[in-house]
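Just curious. Invent one:
>
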Amino acid sequence: MVDILYLTELLGLKVYDLKGRVLGRVRDAAIVPLIDPQRVDRFLIGGSGYAWLTVRHDQVQRISLNGIQLRDEILTPFHNDEYMLRLVRDLLDQQIIDAQGRKVVRVTDVTFQIEGQELKVLEVDVGLRSVVRRLAQGVLPRLWIRRLQEPIAPQSISWQFCNIVEPDPLRRLRLNITNDFLERMHPADIADIVEELGPEDREAIIASLDEEVAAEALSEVDPDMQASILEALETEKAADIMDEMDPGEAADVLAELQEERADEIMHEMEAEEEVTELLEFAEDSAGRLMSTEFVALGEEATVSGAVRLLKENPESVEALQAIYLTRGEKLFATVPLARLLLSAGDVPLRKLAAENAARVKVDAKQVRVVELFDKYNLLELPVVDREDRLVGVITADDVITLLRDK
């Protein structure tokens, strides 16, 4: 393991000049992600009685457990650089996101690969083994500590799967911190991660995500936390996220906010009118539970016409369970989507309609909605007004969320 060095071993390591004299000890190390996301770009050294100095990676002749030997003695005083990620200050003991394991962890050490005279960040360590190293560092010789840790199974995360939590969006940009891994996760996994973070960090993560991804993740978060995050976000960003939500869900989230804050966000939303209409329904009514996104066709529509419409609007297919037929504006019939797959194009949709399909009035109590889903094993339920006009649909997901929140 001579090609491996740990941050706890690096700290306090002596730095020698060309004549073998000690210039100081390592106090921190930094990478500059915009230049190289893995290589330690500089070592910050200090001693008694003078300010820290900076050693560049190309000034190092050799590095080992015995110390750092320099090839160049022209050192400069340390000045903080906004493009620099310092491993002790910014990483050690900090919470980071394990993008592969889909969890939040606290960094207890960092593992480097020694490549010639350079150090490359290999992994961050989070387990008992690294805790033992830290506790024993400075108490026992480094080689003894390595032998002591051998029976303990390592717990580490490859550096490529680490996502650093940084609340400042400008600093995230300077440090080249992206959320590519996060945005490829399932929204429920992102929500779990967000709920593990502190207020400032969770708001920073949501703010840095693509609006569509942020909306899906926010939908999975506890309602009280949703309100807390939206209260803290910039109004324009909050409105962009809410626009990506289903209007019914957006109405539920906005209802949890202070009235003044909800009004600010709605004023910036493209779907302001639609959401406002939903908020007018009683809180425990079917109207507040429904989505206004559905597919409805006239009673004379055919299978080919329905398929053509779905191809023109592919974004509506993912969660679609049924197509609704209307006579005038009134709900006439419900056609399960699966039946389209087994029918010829010229078949009228009304011939595929489900018999005695359930429906619910927009002002019905939500307990009635739950009863209908349970009784008929529904995946989706159309909502009509007093004149039987189709105004929305309620999905099984809506009902599951309702029951979970209660």
Q: What stands out?
A: The chain has a mean pLDDT of 90.
